[in-house]
Each structure stands twice: as structure tokens, then as C-alpha cells.
Records
---
Amino acid sequence: MFSVEKLKEKFNITGRILVNEPLSERTSMKVGGKAPLLFIPDKEEGFVRLLGILKTNDFQNYFRDFMSGEGLIPYQHGLYFILGGGTNIVVSDKGFSCPVVSTGDLCDFEILGNEDERFFVRAGAGLPMNRLVNLLKDASLGSMAEFAGLPGSCGGAVFMNARCFNSSVSDFFVSAKIFDMDRGVTDEVFMDPSAWDYKKSPFQEKSCVILSVVFAVNKVSREKIEEKMRESVNLRKEKGHYLFPSAGSVFKNNRSFGKPTGAIIDSVGLKGLTRGGAKVAPWHGNIIINGGNATASDIRSLVEEVKKTVLEKTGFNLDCEIFFVGDD
């Protein structure tokens, strides 16, 4: 009979393991199926070791037996899936037929020191961005106050090069410790401005997992930090970011077209368009919300409808910012 403790003992796995875990509560869209096994390592070393274990024939045979006992078919999409903060993904209604590994407990934070006016901090990939901003505030380090209220993790924000109110994560990025999944080794990636752009990072072109990140920030008075944080959170509230489950902006902006994507979608009359429980937010064309009973299929259908209509009416091909993941 399957037992989490026996699984840990057999493969010397640390951290938490959850069985048949619903992923809807681990994503900002609140949709999606289950993970047959959800691993949540609590240390970088255990995380890296686990990824090696999941590739072994011994574990794959074990997992096939586990899935067979559940009446399921394993490994339709790779050996495992890495789950970050869950804010830029839509998990399919079927969920995953492979193990899912979460960065959620990689939440270390450390002030490394300073060089003149720049202070260097290291954050674990799973540390929520909003938590990072608050930790920086406590140390009177406020360069990233614009990211207050941003959902998601540090690793995900770096991967997407998240942008908030004219500031991008790349403005503060120094380096990242990664696990290269192709080579099976850890490595360090340093800032190279030519590899970054709007909503683009070098990690999108790599087969890797971000483990931790070093940022450079400046000393700022706590009062100014708190003022900027309040301003950022209030702007998010005004844009309706917290009213319903969503993944934030669905499509990237392309200013060369003449106006923001939300305005383009508004101009063709798509605000309020509904497919099942998914709806284009009545107050912002570039946000799709879960009205309470949406499925991943509803969201995908609505995204495709918006793209098709915008292309037909404007000639503009929208570039989707969110990822659809899981079994088809």
C-alpha cells in the first residue's frame, strides 16, 4: 500500500509530499485538476536532488506502479512539472499525469552586503514578491516598492521579467542560481542586458529552474517606501486586480501598435465577453476573470476568441502572456 513516509524513506526525499493535490487553490486563476504527487522541497539541495531522483528508472517504475494503482496513465507530458507562484499559468482541467514539484518552500531571504549605495539581497525562488517588498521595507531598502501587491514568486517574476508601473525586475536583477535540467548541474547566470527585454528574460530560452535570485536595491527611508507601496497597491485595486481570480494581464503590450493591449481589446467591444464561467473583465480588456465557476477550458476558449476577433478587426496578433499547462 502506498505511503508518503515509505516513499520518502525509499528515495531519501525531504520536504512535503501531497497526494492527489488539487492545483486550483495553488494558482491565481483558481482552476485546474490535480497533481498525482506534489513535492514541496524545503531546501535548494533537496530540490536539486529530487529532480535527479525523478529522472531515475527506479523512480519512474515506482511512479508507474503508483499511477496504475490509481487507475491513471503516467507521464503524458514529461518527467515532472515545476510549479512556482501559479500566477501566470492556467492548469488544465485534467491536471497532470506526472509529478509536480513546487518551489513554494524555497523562501530564504538574506542581505548580502553593499557596495557604495547599492545593497545586495538574495531571495529564494519561492519567496512571494509581496513578501520580498515587505522584507526590504523592514531594512529600509525600497527600490522595488512598485512591486507591492504583486502576486507570484520571485522566481516567476524573474522568469517573466515582471513589469510594474514603469519598473521591470531586470532593473534590479544581478544574478540567479539555477538548476540546468539538460546538464543536470547548478549554475550561476549573471546580468546581461542584451538578454532582457519587455516581459522577456534569458530563462525563457533555457531548460532550467531558478533556485534563488540576487537583486541590487537602494537605501530609502521607510516612510517613502510605505508611501510608494500604498500607491502601488491602490493602483492595483483601482484596476480591479483583486476583485476576482485572474492571472493579471493576459496579453503582452505592444506599444508600436499605438495603444495598450487592453485598449485594443476594448476598442473592438470585447469587454464583458463570456465563455462559460470565464469573462473579459468589464473594467479592463486585458484581464480575464474567473467569475466563480470557470474551467480551464472556458479560459482557453475565451483567450482564443479574443485573439481571433482582434486579429480580424485590427490586424493585430495578440501575444499571450499566460501559459496553458497540464494534460490536454
---
Amino acid sequence: MEVIISHYPEELTFPDEIEENAKRAVEMVGKLYGVENAEVSVTLTDDAYIHTLNRQYRNIDKPTDVLSFALNESEEPEITDGPEVNVLGDIIISVERAGEQAKEYGHSLQREIAFLTVHGMLHLLGYDHMEEEERLEMEQEQRIVMEQLGISREA
């Protein structure tokens, strides 16, 4: 699985393990859901930038923890030349918000980043939580992936 991780703004700093956790979570979802040959972009950012994106794309004027932009939702023209790459989409995670939530829930920042990455990946694969039944299914899938990662609720 090709995992492209970037920071925005570039001067944003956080422990190196954060990137590794996000990459590991993407790869685990890829393995479990049969999309190992896909490409995913993960941007680690701050509340200000994710707030801008949330307002621009969802008309919600506040920061959030994670946004996912799936590239397989609409009909794209088929490209016949060159290698076939399944670009799943982009995940944007607010490291600031993740830190606040980790404190609130009483677990580590690494665990929260892994969870938000799994959540974002499931959205890229078509899972949603708008309806109660969908929410329960997505929560179950999240638990399964987190268990496979060996990350408990308290981690």
C-alpha cells in the first residue's frame, strides 16, 4: 500500500511515532479489506487548517478531528495508458484535536491518531455513520481493525 504522509502547515511538529501510527493503521485497513495495492494520502494538520476545510467542504464552521475525501465515489473516466493505481483518497487529521480527545478519553495520542486514521480509511471504503445501523456497523469495523493493530481502548 502506498501511504503518502504530509504535514500542513509544514512547521507543524509532533512525535515521529504519529506518522508511523497513521501509516500502520492505513496499511492494516488495506490488508483487512483487500486494498493493499491502493494509494492513500494522509495530511496531519492543526485545528485552523481542518476548520477551513470543514467550512469549505461541509459547511460546518468549526474544527473537526478527521476529514476523508474519497476519490472512488463518483464515476471517473477510465485511464487505459500506464499502470493501474487505485487511489482511495485523502485523510486529513487534526493532531491538535486528536491530542485534546486523547486527554478527554484518557488514552495516548498515538492511539487516537490510529483510531482517527482507521475511521478515515473506513469512510474512504464507503462506510458511514449517518444512520444508526450504519453507525453500529462502522463502530464494529473500527473495533476489529483496532484489535488487529493490537491497540486497546486504554492504550
